[in-house]
Amino acid sequence: MFAISIHPASEADASTIAALIQRTVRISNAADYDAVTIAAICNNFTPALVSEKMRTRDVFIARSGNNICGTISLGNGKLHSLFVDPDHQRSGIGRDLALYLEGHARNTGLTELHLSSSLTARSFYARLGYRDIRFEPRPDGSTWLMVKLLV
After folding, report:
1. Residue 139 in 3-state DSSP?
2. 1 pLDDT band (50/70/90 cuts)?
3. Taking the CB of residue 76, how many other CB atoms lie within 10 A of it?
4. Residue 148: predicted pLDDT
5. How far is Cα 31 from Cα 151, in angstroms, rounded to an integer?
6. Cβ distance 72 to 98 under 8 Å?
7. In the Cβ-directed half-sphere of 93, how many Cα atoms lie within 13 Å?
8. Residue 96 — pLDDT band, cuts 50, 70, 90?
9. Cα–Cα distance for residue pair 130/47, rounded to 1 Å
10. Burial, 151: exposed, middle or buried (Cβ in 10 Å; 0-12, 13-18, 19+)?
11. Phi, psi of 91 (to 5 degrees)
């Protein structure tokens, strides 16, 4: 188990967040997506695109010591971009980030939270109480649209 703290991300974190996401996708999603799809997903998370997304979303990071080991964001009533560094997975950080974001979403007045889960993370979200709405075939990585009531 890792001791973590969760904080709002800053613009200065964008490059580190992008590197964390790309590393996580390449390692953790490789069993569920082919190399072309992995590359397309990674192309959605360049430092410039992460920085751009940070301007329209509430982005949070999990730190273990001085290292960013996870990230998550909220935008337009949707949970986005929950990624935990592969070296820290299965330690509760993903769950902690999701619960933190759910609390943040409640505080903004949301009563439900939507997300597009990778094939890899679908069972993780189901364990947290998210339920399937429908499968979303996409050229940059098919996902499952899921929802959780926050009330």
Report:
1. coil
2. low
3. 8
4. 98
5. 35
6. yes
7. 26
8. very high
9. 29
10. exposed
11. -115, 0
Q: Which two tokens stand for residue 144?
A: 């499952």
Alpha-carbon distance 71 to 102, whole Å?
A: 14
Any idea which residue has 């080991």 for tokens?
Answer: 69
Spatial CA neighbour of 140 closest among 27, 45, 19: 45
In angstroms, the CA 58 to CA 80 distance is 10
d(CA 111, CA 113): 7
Lookup: tokens for 105 = 């979403």
Would you state the pLDDT for residue 83?
98
Quick: pLDDT tens for 99-138. Answer: 999 999 999 999 999 999 999 999 999 999 999 999 999 8
Find, among 136, 116, 142, 144, the residue nearest to 40 by Cα: 142
pTM over 0.85: yes
